[in-house]
TrEMBL record:
The chain crosses the membrane at residues 61-87, 108-128, 148-167, 174-193, 199-216, 228-248, 260-281, 304-326, 338-355, 376-396, 402-425. Keywords: Acyltransferase, Membrane, Transferase, Transmembrane, Transmembrane helix. InterPro entries: Acyl_transf_3_dom. It comes from Pseudoclavibacter albus. This is Acyltransferase.
Length: 448
């Protein structure tokens, strides 16, 4: 090593890639426990005969609580920041949008395929073991619902190259146009055109994603705390007006699929609130203990999100085998047993997250080089569609779920191989350096 060479980084913070904002990593990492908690509490199994249902449905107190704890907009905001930064770096290295889509698709679809396969196998085993088919079907529907995030997030991520180009030309124009589309779609739905509602899955979440990009280009600094505070206050005021005068539900979960103007308002509120908190969060992230938190949650974030539903299936099966009672969801006895349910879920998730995967990391088998953009897009769409098949139908009947899993597995294999028009290249030193930095940061971009 020459005397002029730079010393090797010794601390976690020194190994972070340039431009990384740890406040965004912190926000995304801390959101995960809320998502798992919400899904765990929504899983209600009870009745005679036993059936699964949403235990939190029609709870007015919890409906207002979703204004604070429904944090999916923050995921899309954080993902928009990370994915835009990743795309700009790839473009600087001479890589194209086909390479970008391939990398994003693999990060999402490969771990999703493994988790779905595990739940599918467990469902098949329980079916063969004689578990009540209708109970298993209703449980399977509940377990599949969190998968909505995967195809929608994938679609938004694939749009990053286009959205970045449009945003660079007219930052305000992109956001205003997408917000306008959301308002028009909502109005059309209320006028009797419900088939237009799915358009807002893209319009609303693209707004959130693009707001994430503003966190890295100085927009929030130029706005300043006063205007950001006004945006937050105005967003919540607008949501109250939509609820009181517009007939919208006050439950953010009711407004989620497809998203409505209420979710758009919540997105603006969370974005501006987060921007106000960023200076304090950046100071907080100077502490080694906080770096360790995002390193642990970051490296295990995707696994935690995808496998907590598998853990719930295992717990329900164990409860049946042991002959433990299933209190009626939502009553006092049910709430009094939630601490045991959550504690058991946490223990099982810790075990799952501690299982080493370094020796079986299929992503390392991906061929290095350039995949044709058209093939990357088609493979990405096929994989997202496979997830959607499972999402819409649940895990039973097994034949239908197998079709979705087969589509997903085929897409992953296609992406790993690089396709028919693949161009092989040698890995660059810069790519290796960035990979090291991403690992040091906890690979929090595995979600996006």
């Amino acid at each position: 090593m020459s005397a002029a060479a730079s010393p090797a980084p010794t601390s976690l913070s020194e190994r972070m890639p340039a431009g990384r904002d740890l406040s965004v990593d912190l926000a995304r990492a801390l959101c995960l426990p809320f998502v798992v908690l919400l899904h765990a509490l929504q899983m209600g199994v009870g009745g005679d005969p036993l059936r699964a249902s949403n235990a939190l449905a029609d709870n007015e107190v919890l409906a207002w609580g979703t204004w604070a704890f429904m944090i999916m907009p923050t995921f899309f905001i954080a993902g928009g920041f990370a994915n835009t930064l990743s795309w700009r770096r790839m473009r600087e290295r001479g890589e194209g949008w086909g390479d970008y889509i391939r990398s994003r698709a693999l990060r999402l679809l490969l771990p999703t395929a493994l988790a779905i396969a595990a739940i599918f196998a467990c469902t098949a085993a329980l079916t063969a073991g004689g578990m009540d088919a209708e109970l298993l079907r209703t449980v399977g529907v509940r377990l599949a619902e969190p998968l909505w995030f995967i195809p929608i997030y994938a679609a938004c991520s694939f749009c990053i190259p286009l959205m970045t180009r449009l945003y660079d030309r007219s930052p305000a124009g992109v956001l205003v146009t997408l917000a306008g589309v959301t308002a028009v779609v909502d109005a059309a739905v209320r006028l009797g055109l419900p088939w237009l509602a799915p358009l807002n899955w893209l319009a609303v979440w693209l707004v959130a994603q693009q707001l994430g990009a503003t966190l890295g280009d100085g927009t929030t600094q130029r706005l300043g705390p006063v205007r950001l505070g006004l945006v937050a206050a105005g967003s919540y005021a607008g949501m109250l007006a939509l609820w009181h005068f517009g007939g919208y539900s006050n439950d953010m979960l009711d407004n989620l699929n497809p998203p409505t103007l209420m979710i758009l308002g919540l997105t603006l509120a969370q974005w501006s609130t987060f921007a106000l908190a960023q200076p304090a969060l950046r100071k907080l992230m100077q502490r080694p203990s906080m770096l360790a938190v995002i390193a642990v949650l970051g490296m295990r974030g995707m696994r935690l999100y995808l496998w907590h539903t598998f853990a719930m299936l295992v717990l329900i099966a164990a409860q049946l085998v042991l002959g433990l009672p299933f209190p009626e969801p939502g009553n006092g006895e049910w709430w009094s047993t939630r601490w045991l349910w959550l504690a058991s879920l946490i223990v099982l998730l810790v075990v799952i997250c501690c299982i080493p995967t370094r020796g079986v990391d299929l992503s390392k088998t991906a061929r290095r080089g350039h995949m044709h953009p058209a093939e990357a897009v088609i493979a990405g769409i096929m994989g997202a569609a496979g997830v959607a098949v499972v999402l819409l139908g649940g895990y039973l009947p097994l034949g239908r779920a197998a079709i979705g899993l087969g589509m997903l597995a085929g897409a992953v294999a296609w992406l790993l191989s690089g396709g028919l028009a693949f161009t092989a290249v040698r890995p660059s030193a810069h790519a290796a350096e960035e990979a090291t930095g991403a690992h040091a940061a906890g690979v929090t971009t595995r979600r996006g």
